[in-house]
């Protein structure tokens, strides 16, 4: 019989919403494999809101402050509050793996080890946990699915219904921003795409900064992440599509069940894809490093070695290609 655990701590302190979403299948798989276990998740806000209320999660813990060392302090506090039988972590900095190894009955603390260059990150997590005997074979094919409460689903439905009703053509949501400049599709491309969709009769909605001089559709109401997930689910129910760069909201849309078209530049779509339609700009870029993206020359300052004006990989994703992918979805 496989070993089971009563007290499980899952730590994801990488900081991004997308990072937590890629780990969700592992969270849900651990809960299924260990029925009745008390599973805690330690992660950052605002992503923590996506697992509060999830039936698989007994407790959500976040760092208490934003000063240096907050994450390590949060891990130490979680271990002191209840010693886990099993700790699983994606987080490798500030001695956190060693802290978990010393404070848990068993710890699996490096889900990034030895990645094949084109294996999706989330699949790698599941493969390692399966190899460690912690997940069943069926769990290896699981995809991120965010739990939608009834309140979030209703709020999202109301917001989308108020903006588009039951349209003749499916709505399209444009996620125009990304957390890093190096991941942003050029503004001129967004404007051309929004115009082309509107001419075809699609209600165009937007998430992210809107230029008053050149609005890109009707902004979705500002909301917390659970309600935003509900809005994306409502768009998907109408046959709509969410399109945007490699960023948390696009991953959230996919996890909420909406079709997505994701635009990849510096990150490799084969490794970081959303599971929808993933378009790669400049697939042959010699500077892209699928398993070491932070070491790419463009990463931190968005200075592309191929184009001084903008990331060449994203500029190369032309509007016609994206429009065809969106309408196909």
TrEMBL record:
Key words of the record: Glycosyltransferase, Transferase
Family annotation (InterPro entries): Glyco_trans_9, LPS_LOS_Heptosyltrfase
Single GO molecular function: ADP-heptose-lipopolysaccharide heptosyltransferase activity
Family annotation (Gene3D superfamilies): Glycogen Phosphorylase B
Gene Ontology annotations of biological process type: lipopolysaccharide core region biosynthetic process
GO cellular component, one term: cytosol
Statement: the UniProt record of this protein carries the keyword Transferase: yes
Keyword Glycosyltransferase: yes
Source taxon at top rank: Bacteria
Name listed for the protein in its UniProt record: Heptosyltransferase-2
Organism listed in the record: Micromonospora citrea
């Amino acid at each position: 019989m496989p070993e089971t655990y009563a007290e499980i701590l899952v730590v994801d302190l990488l900081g991004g919403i997308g990072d937590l979403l890629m780990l969700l299948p592992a969270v849900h798989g651990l809960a299924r494999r260990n029925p009745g276990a008390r599973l805690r998740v330690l992660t950052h806000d605002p992503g923590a809101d996506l697992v509060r209320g999830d039936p698989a999660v007994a407790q959500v813990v976040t760092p208490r402050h934003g000063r240096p060392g907050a994450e390590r302090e949060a891990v130490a506090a979680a271990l002191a509050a209840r010693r886990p039988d099993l700790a699983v972590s994606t987080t490798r900095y500030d001695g956190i793996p060693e802290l978990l190894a010393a404070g848990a009955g068993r710890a699996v603390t490096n889900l990034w080890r030895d990645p094949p260059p084109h294996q999706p990150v989330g699949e790698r997590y599941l493969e390692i946990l399966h190899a460690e005997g912690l997940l069943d074979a069926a769990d290896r094919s699981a995809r991120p699915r965010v739990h939608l409460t009834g309140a979030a689903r209703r709020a999202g439905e109301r917001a989308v219904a108020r903006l588009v009703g039951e349209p003749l053509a499916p709505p399209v949501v444009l996620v125009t921003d990304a957390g890093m400049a190096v991941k942003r599709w050029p503004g001129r491309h967004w404007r051309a795409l929004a115009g082309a969709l509107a001419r075809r009769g699609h209600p165009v909605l937007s998430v992210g900064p809107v230029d008053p001089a050149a609005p890109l559709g009707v902004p979705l109401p500002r909301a917390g992440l659970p309600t935003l997930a509900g809005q994306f689910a409502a768009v998907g129910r109408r046959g709509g599509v969410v399109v945007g760069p490699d960023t948390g909201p696009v991953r959230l849309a996919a996890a909420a069940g909406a079709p997505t078209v994701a635009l990849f530049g510096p990150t490799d779509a084969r490794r970081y894809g959303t599971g929808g339609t993933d378009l790669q700009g400049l697939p042959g870029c010699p500077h892209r490093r699928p398993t070491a993206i932070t070491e790419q020359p463009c990463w931190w300052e968005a200075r592309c070695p191929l184009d001084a004006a903008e990331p060449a990989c994203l500029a190369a994703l032309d509007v016609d290609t994206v429009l065809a992918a969106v309408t196909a979805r």
